[in-house]
Write a structure and sequence with these properties.
The structure holds two protein chains of two kinds. Chain A is an all-beta fold. In chain A, strands 1, 3, 4, 5, 8, 9 and 10 form a seven-stranded mixed beta sheet that branches. In chain A, β4 and β5 form a beta hairpin. Chain A is globular, with a radius of gyration of 13 Å. Chain B is mostly beta strands. Chain B is built from no helices and eleven strands. In chain B, β9 and β10 form a beta hairpin. Chains A and B meet through β4, β8 and β9 of A and β5, β9 and β10 of B.
Chain lengths: ~110, ~120
């Protein structure tokens, strides 16, 4: 059971838009920045979004992050087949005193 | 462009100690925090903890009693030990650089560079 809650999977057609939600609590998302990582099968995670909505260097403008209260979202527009991956949200937890992650969301581009 | 590379045994016997090293190239280990994150096959990510280049540590409370991290700035590498391992410790182990940046309301952090990961299996 992950501290941050994400849907296990999402799917959408090419060129469409999809959002991935990440729900937490005051001790993590509510009080700290959210980061998003993309993990292509068989590879290490890669930083996508940091400090809630800032894109890491080289990340396409098709990716955007947002946060409100104790929830965050990752949006991907203009879906492409190469976007198929697992996406993880993460934040520092002030009570657990460690980094916490969502369980990951598998994105399928139909 | 900093690069990280994990190294260590891929197979450890139950009750023994798992030991890994992460070598940093293309940049200095000084000035940053360095983390270990693991991922059981087919499952999600778990932060094991991190160590600063000065040697101060922060361990995940769920693993604290079994984890030790160390850093060697002269060799530009840092290490992880997990004692008394069981099958539940079988996972891909990643090392990562943790960056600290000043924000409008304080510091914020993120993992900006990751090693490729190494699979450690616990089995007799």
């Amino acid at each position: 059971q992950s501290v941050l809650t994400q849907p296990p999977s999402v799917s959408e057609a090419p060129r469409q838009r999809v959002t991935i939600s990440c729900s937490g609590s005051r001790s993590n998302i509510g009080n700290n920045a959210v980061n998003w990582y993309q993990q292509v099968p068989g590879k290490a995670p890669k930083l996508l979004i940091y400090y809630d909505d800032l894109k890491s260097s080289g990340v396409s403008d098709r990716f955007s992050g947002s946060k409100s209260g104790t929830s965050a979202s990752l949006a991907i527009r203009g879906l492409r087949s190469e976007d198929e991956a697992d996406y993880y949200c993460s934040a520092w937890d002030d009570i657990l005193n460690t980094w916490v992650f969502g369980g990951g969301t598998k994105l399928t581009v139909l | 462009q900093v690069q990280l590379q994990e190294s260590g045994p891929g197979l450890v016997k139950p009750s023994e100690t798992l030991s890994l090293t992460c070598t940093v190239s293309g940049g200095s280990i000084r000035g940053y925090y360095w983390s270990w994150i693991r991922q059981p096959p087919g499952k999600g990510l778990e932060c094991i903890g991190y160590i600063s280049y000065t040697g101060s540590t922060n361990y995940n409370p769920s693993l604290r009693s079994r984890v030790t991290m160390s850093v060697d700035t002269s060799k530009n590498h840092f290490s992880l030990s997990v004692s008394s391992v069981t099958a539940a410790d079988t996972a891909f182990y990643y090392c990562a650089r943790q960056v600290r940046v000043a924000g409008t309301s304080g510091w914020f952090y993120y993992f900006d560079s990751w090693g490729q990961g190494t699979l450690v299996s616990v089995s007799s």
